[in-house]
Specification:
about 240 residues; alpha/beta; Rossmann fold; 5-stranded antiparallel β-sheet; elongated
């Protein structure tokens, strides 16, 4: 059983390693101090299980999981976080609340090893946790071999791109494996409106709305971009803008 421990606290990592000494089939193949290191180690070692802290520098545990195509099994190690715990409990995944005892640790390992239990959905955990307000102020994407953190205020608009969403900013375009529906919901608090099945726009950048063919309109941004708004999208836009 290949294991990676990802936690910015050396003491927390050492406790997990100490408890794992009781499991002769467990091999710790890497220890990581943050999500960047963690992602690289997961891609390199392809572990069976990771112990993952939530609050870490650079990117947090949830953001790291979002960047991995097929994440391994996860046991979260975290200080008290009400929303995070709600995400874990909703999706039947175990977590260790710091400080945790050996008994609680053994219980989590037993749950992981019990093949009769349903396999926890990491994607569902990330989906639930991403709706927490603290998770909605930025978007983390992979840009080649690098990781890019995009503050929501820098997003001009989003465009559907097959199984991905294209995030358009002044620095360039970035792809994120999410649905338009997800962003429509999570960015609504930041003045974003879905104006078309293919577009979500930052309303703070709108300079003009012109009639277009049939019942559609053309939304023009201060950046020069021109986006189609469907009949229903235009109605939502008018409601949000108060026109």
């Amino acid at each position: 059983m290949k294991i990676i421990i990802i936690d910015d606290e050396p003491l927390a990592r050492s406790i997990v390693k100490e408890y794992l000494q009781s499991y002769p089939d467990a091999e710790v193949v890497a220890e990581c101090n943050d999500g960047f290191e963690g992602m690289k180690a997961i891609l390199h070692h392809e572990p069976d299980l990771i112990f993952l802290d939530i609050q870490m520098p650079k990117i947090n545990g949830f953001e790291m999981l979002e960047l991995i195509e097929n994440p391994p099994a996860v046991i979260f190690t975290t200080a008290f976080d009400e929303f995070a715990i709600k995400a874990f409990e909703l999706n039947a995944t175990d977590y260790l609340l710091k400080p945790f005892s050996r008994e609680r640790f053994d219980k989590a390992l037993k749950k992981y090893s019990d093949k009769s239990l349903p396999v926890p959905s990491t994607d569902a955990i990330v989906e639930t946790a991403s709706k927490e307000p603290g998770q909605q102020n930025r978007v983390v994407v992979k840009d080649g071999s690098k990781i890019k953190i995009i503050p929501v205020g820098q997003i001009q608009y989003l465009e559907a791109a097959d199984d991905y969403v294209k995030i358009v900013t002044a620095e360039g375009n970035f792809l994120k494996k999410r649905t338009m529906g997800f962003f429509e919901q999570s960015l609504a608090i930041h003045h974003f409106v879905r104006i078309h099945r293919s577009y979500i726009v930052n309303t703070l950048l709108i300079t003009r709305i012109d009639p277009y063919e049939k019942d559609s309109h053309l939304v023009i941004l201060s950046t020069g971009a021109k986006l189609s708004a469907s009949k229903s999208g235009y109605s939502k836009l008018k409601e949000v803008l108060g026109i």
